Amino acid sequence: MLAAAIVVVGVLGVAGPNQAHLAQPMTIYGHFKGRTVMVTATDRSAGAIESLQWGGTEFLDASDHGRNLQSAVSFDGLGECDNPTEAGSSRDGWRPNASSSRLLTWSAANNVLSTRAQMAYWLRLGQRSAGCTQGMIETRLSSTRLVKTVRFLPGFPNVLEHRISFELARPRALAQFEVLTAYMPEHFDTFYRFNPAGGRMEPLSDGPGEQGLPVVLATSDGTHALGLLTPQAGTGARSGPGYGRWRFKQQRVTKSNVVFRQQNAKAGAHSFVVYTVFGTLEDVRETLRTLHGDGRVAERAPGPSAAKAPMGALAKN
């Protein structure tokens, strides 16, 4: 792998009651194949990642607070009716508006992006969506907090390592963790799954829904691609990972995600690791092959996951 040459802009802060605007975005920088990588989060999305650029090409769609590269969770089979979301709520509207989620602390020092946020409910009382027939929650903020760190994985300048913890204030019968989801511009329109058996990319339909192997979304010419991968496997009452994919023609975005489900989820932290792998399609394939080959990733058989219902079945906008 190419060594990363890193330049870092660091900011530190604690958000006050009014969630004052940052003096500058939270950005970490790297280099891959001679091109600059920029990863940017802002308080506008409560620390969710709004931009991932490589050589000036944008990989993410951040048009509203339901998109971005972010995390969410739903409880007890209620879908979007009980759906704390990192970047904010549906009422926040388009990108310039402030987030309903509360960014509590942040740092972008030493090439590590760290945030802690209190997650807003995606829908509130009286709101409806295809994933919720009737919103029933009156409050803006949930009791769930999200703590994450993001860095370039050492030795892999085209891999972001996300360490993500959902802090539950009380036990839940079922927690459906959308550990990480990537909303991407519509020209990332070609779907693959990575099969570690032979280290190959296999064509994949646009679903929608989950299956058992990492999903990669690419441009049709293969010059740009992005995939999400977790090194973790399901265990005990925790099932997963499910790797989902969607194409939303009306919203002009594509989406992939990594989902785990926890039965009888206890109060406290539920922690996960996800890698975001980017570059050309061949870069992503080779990097995924290497990550599997060096023993970082728990092997699992291809095919459908044990998922009951897909998370994020509709684009949030």
Structural features, described:
The chain is mainly beta and 317 residues long. It has one domain (12-293): Beta-galactosidase, Chain A, domain 5 (Distorted Sandwich), CATH 2.70.98. The chain is built from 1 helix and 20 strands. Strands 1, 7, 8, 9, 10, 11, 13, 14, 16, 17 and 20 form an 11-stranded antiparallel sheet that branches. It has a 5-stranded antiparallel sheet with strand order 6-12-19-18-15, with no helix packed on it. Strands 2-3-4-5 form a 4-stranded antiparallel sheet, with no helix packed on it. A hairpin with a 2-residue loop joins strand 4 (49-54) and strand 5. It is globular and about 50 Å long. The protein starts with 11 loop residues before the first strand and ends in a 24-residue tail after the last helix. Mean pLDDT is 87; it is low at 1-11, 14-23 and 299-315.
Give a quick summary of the entry.
By secondary structure, the protein is mostly beta strands. The chain has one helix and 20 strands.
- Number of strand segments: 20
Number of helices: 1
The overall pLDDT average reads: 87
Query: Which oligomerization state do the chains in this entry correspond to?
Result: single chain
What is the CA-based Rg, rounded? 18 Å
State the helicity in percent bands: under 10%
Largest sheet report: 11 strands, antiparallel
Strand-pairing-aware structural class: mainly beta
CATH top-level class:
Mainly Beta
Shape: globular
Question: Please, how many domains?
Answer: 1
- Spatial separation of the terminal alpha carbons: 38 Å
H/E order of the elements?
A: EEEEEEEEEEEEEEEEEEEEH
Kindly estimate the percentage of residues that lie in beta strands according to DSSP. Answer: over 45%
Remind me, CATH topology? Answer: Beta-galactosidase, Chain A, domain 5
Q: State the low-pLDDT regions, or none.
A: 1-11, 14-23, 299-315
Assigned CATH architecture? Distorted Sandwich
